[in-house]
Amino acid sequence: MDVIYLDNAATTPILPDVVDAMHQTLNTCYGNPSSVHAAGRSAKVKVESARKYIAKQLGVLPQEIIFTSGGTEGDNTILQCAVDHLGVKHIISSPIEHHAVLHPLEHLASQGKISLHLVKILPNGLPDMNDLEKLLSETPDKKLVSLMHINNEVGTVLDIESVGSLCHNYNALFHSDTVQSIGHFPMNLGALPIDFAVASAHKFHGPKGVGFLYARKQTALGALLLGGAQERGMRAGTESVHNIVGMEVALRSSYKTMEADTEKLKILKTHCMQSLQEALPGTVFNGACSDFDCSTHTIVNARLPINEKKAQLLLFHLDLQGICCSKGSACQSGSELGSHVLNTLLTKEENKSPSLRFSFSAHNSKEEIDKLVDVLVAYVNS
């Protein structure tokens, strides 16, 4: 059975060119980048070349890019070090952030290190800007705002420029989880009013276990992991050279095809939404999914007109048919509480209908969407 992979917001298939580059690096570039001999210097060159390329694409300085194991480490580093090293006392976030942000914030609040404030969320998944300004005005001590750029479940796109400008008007630092956007959208972080961002290579067809954080130079963010002096003292531990090389190759590929991929994915997403509503009348799209002005072209989160009994086995049935997708996010799939994002955006009655997230890459096709819709219709009518 051919697999139809529609869960690219969870992870993406690694590109063959990325695998080749990583394999070559593992075979020929085994030195420790911190070593001063030739093998170490060779590895160091690869690490720094990747850093320079990433920095150039994002419009920032190479020293503002710190390699990490991925988005979770990046978010944790920024949030905890902002408190421990920058004196942040208040953090404003939202109830629909990724748990890589929410859980560290809850931990910091439980320890009494911060006061945590959650901004009101509108039905489309965007923060209420009036409420955000109110919260900013009521917190006189040093503060930070943490709001994700693209929501990983419903695909809502935050206006980073407007939010960042508002934060800086109130002398607040601004952190955004950009895991779902870097590699998919052109971004000039250096020109945006943003202090911290994170990325994860496996979200743009790179390897798992590697990513980077961006910390604006003026913030003087400290380190979370202590030990060696790697990453300019910002992240101790021997760099994963082959993963960093793989990430660079994946990002190069994404920028090379980004414009064409975006146009293809907009067509694919539109086809998916139209086909679902035509075949299953009553289908509703959660958040701002159907509005391309404030949602990503990579995600459709659909609430389907299926009764509760059939909803229980829906994801299992799709899996048996070779279709990979998520009920909520992959990070939530083992939770009986369901999606915290949908619990925030939907009423209890609306949440009785099953919601599925379909997330696309340029490797998907209209034929795969048609197969998905046929399988769903057959299941509903069975």
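^ that was protein a. below is b, sequence first then the tokens
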Amino acid sequence: MWKAFSGNHSRRSAGNRETIWSIGVFLGASPLELREPRSFKNPVLTRRDVTDVPAVFVADPFMVRADGKWHMFFEVYNKASRKGEIGYAFSTNGDDWEYAGIVLTEPFHLSYPCVVDWKGDFYMIPESRDAGGVRLYRASRFPSHWEYVTTLLDAPYADSTVFRFENRWWLFTDASASFRIRHRESQLGFRHDTLRLFHADDIAGAWREHPKSPIVRCDPHIARPGGRVFVGNCLIRFAQDCYPTYGTRLFAFRINQLSPTCYEETENLEGSVLTAGNAAWNRDGMHHIDPHLLGDGQVIACVDGFSWMQEDP
């Protein structure tokens, strides 16, 4: 059941616990009916697979299919640099993954590497909120070398999610304002309660804000993007629930109307698409999905999940 709407990381915990994110792969008949296959060895990637930097966790996976392989890009939180960097792994079957190293690092934090293939080129829009803008990269030598192209939006937006529909590029982004964390004035928090929508003729811009944007106002449950927009027999956007605890589950919204002047979406009232599982790697929450349609009509998706771990004293 769906409910209609029309719209105008901190992954480290407090106290002596930390969140350990890992990456899995799910299959299903649709992006709304995904299951963990018994034959898969989930999680397919953990911090222990990262060999070139001391990783605290891996999260926010996106993948593309090329040259007979799945190519996955994801955040690696580097304990030494104390920031996120973009790691890479590949697989021929979607189950067995080989980590191949960090492929993009900047002086600032990077995460959520939204990757798309367009006209023979591969583009990446990682979260670069700490740099003050939404930045576009292109693979100069795929998959290992990436070059900065331009800044798409000159604002500290988070988890920008780009997709192509009806000969246009569209971009959802978390445009929440920052605020000071009480009693910890040296740190900033984000409300994750405002979703903006932009569109452009070309992926490099110029990007224009949709007249119905913000699509979501003042709702941290459904504003922050939670993975790739599914483009199939319908359009589905995913939102991560950021209240009262970050990253616990994922909601889905079917986009019924999308044009330069119109936007309307319907919420899936059947409940969350992804939530905490029974396994150790995702027992406390899940917050990201990257679904892809296979030739047999099935959907494969890389996802992430976390568990609370006690830090060493």
